[in-house]
Batch of 2 targets.
Target 1
Amino acid sequence: MNVIYEPKGRAREYSELACNLYMGCTHGCRYCYAPACMRTTGRKWHAIAKPRKNIVELFEKDARKLRGDSRRILFCFLSDPYQPLESKERLTRQALGIVYKYGLKSQILTKGSADLIQEDLELMKKADRRLGITLSYVDDQKRREWEPNASTVNDRLEILKHAHKAGLYTWVSLEPVIDPEQALALIRKTHKYVRFWKIGKLNHMNEYEQTINWQKFLYDVEALLKKYSVKYYIKKDLRAFAM
Ligand code: SF4
């Protein structure tokens, strides 16, 4: 295959298949792993996003080969599928249409514009109903420090609520956890309209990581998720702190 691929390592805990539609991502998250994966600098990767060359044609070519495959294709790991450029290029919308056309399954993972997501909800329902939103903070000031150009916390919560009401399977990537209290507050605030949680620790930022008692967080977060009877998955690097 050309552009649909099988993720490896930590990304594999998210999805069996994935596709990156854009190169670059203007959300500019401080913890972004994409520049390291792409062997470039954060400054360059976050300066501009561009469509990948012939991405829609290549995606359709791969999708045709996979027709009927039950593995879910995640959009996207190395860039956000709903960043500002999507309002002009509509690559995500076209990819969702192709997913539907070939009887495939998809899942979105984004911290992008709620307005853009909203416009594609009907298509997401057809392309097998999963919308994932990344959240680390309930406090929007902190969110702005860490994810300066991504959507506000309020926008993300509203689109989750709306998607849940519209019948989509909503899930949250609570990763990276940067502040355990904020992470727990997010679960308390949103558990009624989030069907599934995927939880992972902050990595590659020692100055923050080492200030957190991960064992305590793991205990607290599991207790809370069990109290609300919601489904969840703890990623392996956080699970490793189990007593
Ligand atoms: S949304 Fe994802 S790819 Fe974009 S800057 Fe943030 S972490 Fe990086």
Note: The first helix runs from residue 34 to 37.
Target 2
Amino acid sequence: MRTKQDFINGLSKMKRNVYFNGERIDRTDEVQMDCINVIGTTYDEAAKPENEGLCTAVSHLTGNKINRFTNIHMSKEDLHKKQDMTRMLCQKVGGCIQRCMGIDATNAIYNVSFEADKVKKGETNYHENFKKWVTRFQNEDLVSAGAQTDVKGDRMLRPAEQPDPSAYVRIKERTKDGIVVEGCKLHISEASVSDEILVFPTRALRPEDSDYAVAFGIPADWDGLKQVVTIHNVKKRQIYKRGVHHSGTDSYLLFDNCFIPWEKVFLAGEYQHGGVLALLFALFHRHSYSGCKPAIGDTILGIAALAAEVNNVHKAEHVREKLAEIIMTTELGYAAGYTASDLGKPEVYMPGMGFVPYGPGSYIPHSIYCNVGRCLSGEAVWREAEILCDIAGGVVATFPFEKDFANPETGELLMRYTKRNPKMPAEDQAQFWRYLGEYLCSGMGGVTNVGNYHGGGSPIMEQIAITTQYDIESRKKVIRHIAGMSGGDGDALAKKSRK
Ligand SMILES: Cc1cc2nc3c(=O)[nH]c(=O)nc-3n(C[C@H](O)[C@H](O)[C@H](O)COP(=O)(O)OP(=O)(O)OC[C@H]3O[C@@H](n4cnc5c(N)ncnc54)[C@H](O)[C@@H]3O)c2cc1C
């Protein structure tokens, strides 16, 4: 397994195809270092003996010890551990750990490439190609981005109907050696600090959309790929340092006549499998949210409780209610993910067929619980921001800059008027408001909320998944029976659970 420094050294050797604010930058440019340090935590923690069971796994492909972020889930236990590792690491950095897109895309493609080959009866070699990719991913302990979201142009048109045919990433040309792709994947988290990029479709596809059913894996500095990155750093502190600097990056990935050799292609034209891949990545990613979002809940709870303490209102009734609300959302999100892990099987939900065996035997979390958990906790982010705003009061938006505290002309008076709770040092109170201002009122804070709401799919996508997969008909039959209507069956649900 690699160390954090190995990871940084790898990034420093990559070709310069990352653009930021009008300039081409090195991957290890200072502006990206906070984000690199966040991902570096996944290397540091995996190396600690006490985290061995949680942060490392044994590869079912090679038998080697690997970082769990490169693992294919082979049991319920693996799903539980991924959830718990994600929560633990996100707690450490006070936000997203920035490495789950790769593991989620890897698990999705692992299953879909197998099923696509099965249907093509030996014509394609996607799964073997992907297993080679996974083996290298595991052995070299790489970071991969997951590039799903397309530009999508006019939302009311399907891929093949768009005026610009590259509004969704597509196969522009096929040659005997590979495919040429064109288009743009956007909002792709941590692509600018990843070794590899896995690309796959964003939605269900029809036969006429088959050029959009494309999945492949390439190094993040591949020829024909340019990245334009936005970087979400908080203001650099010069005097009153923070303990941890959380940060993230998101890229537009521009594929301009980009050639992909067949051995890096995992799907090329199988539109039905393209749709399943889109849904399966979303499912694994929503399962990851059942680890990260509870950790963000832990962070928000800690902030809310401290804000109340700094303001010396921590015994007030309305504060207790708000803390309880944060805890309930956090732990319901965790419980949904726990159940999704525990009911995990090598099965997926197929419309009209229910849950059916799928893939070569790796474990897939239960869809209803992944979607319920992510939707509930994703939608809660704005309410949680409201709670922080409420308990903190206005100081969080107007707290003076650090040099005004260091200035002898103003510092002493500012410190005097910072003091609220007599039992807490004023310096700690000042540090707390600096941090909370950065958390709640910065560009980074805004991006975090939008990301937590839309990342993994907007709530509407989860609601569609839940309502199409949930057995609403059985519930109707039970109520028909209880109400004395025709067509009732008081045993309709019990029969299902006995199966
Ligand atoms: C910070 C951040 C990080 C992200 N990281 C990643 C990443 O690493 N990898 C990745 O692949 N993606 C990533 N995403 C993308 C994320 O998954 C998408 O933002 C999400 O799926 C919503 O897609 P969209 O942004 O295109 O919004 P849209 O789909 O455009 O949604 C906007 C509105 O239009 C509605 N709408 C859209 N289409 C229709 C329709 N046909 N009919 C009716 N209403 C419609 C939606 O319901 C919504 O209300 C990230 C997003 C953010 C904000």
Note: The first strand starts at residue 18 and ends at 20.
